[in-house]
Amino acid sequence: VQLVESGGGLVQPGGSLRLSCVTSGFTFSRYDMTWYRQAQGKERDLVASITYTGARTDYADSVKGRFTISRDNAKNILYLQMNSLKLEDTAVYYCNRRWTPFDRWGQGTQVTVSS
Predict the structure, then answer these.
(1) Quick check: helix, strand or coil at residue 68?
(2) Which H/E stretch holds residue 107?
(3) Which of 15, 47, 50, 108 gives 11 a disulfide partner, CB atoms 3.0 to 4.6 angstroms apart?
(4) Tens digits of per-residue pLDDT, 25-57?
(5) d(CA 86, CA 104)
(6) CB contact at 8 A, 80 and 33
(7) DSSP3 helix / strand / coil % (the chain, rounded to 5)
(8) What span, in angstroms and rounded, lies between the C-alpha atoms of 115 and 89?
């Protein structure tokens, strides 16, 4: 199993980034998926989730209206479009299955929002 996150970087407040999570080793299209983030010194928090068909999405209150989670089941890729980024969005972002997360996480992708 592999979860490979990418797309992070340094961005100014108000900017945008699109994160990708390329998966392999399991049947991606059968699982609800989630983006998590972990700020320095804090616990890992759920950011957004999507059902296996993509029909339903859920978001943490802190990102509602700014972030959009999506997926491409043909390519086994999970996405997170992040708009109107704020300083408090700075964190390492990870993807994993929602209800049965893998013990081994990917390396994550660093998102830094700074002026």
Answers:
(1) strand
(2) none
(3) 15
(4) 999 999 999 999 999 999 999 999 999 999 999
(5) 29
(6) no
(7) 5, 50, 45
(8) 13
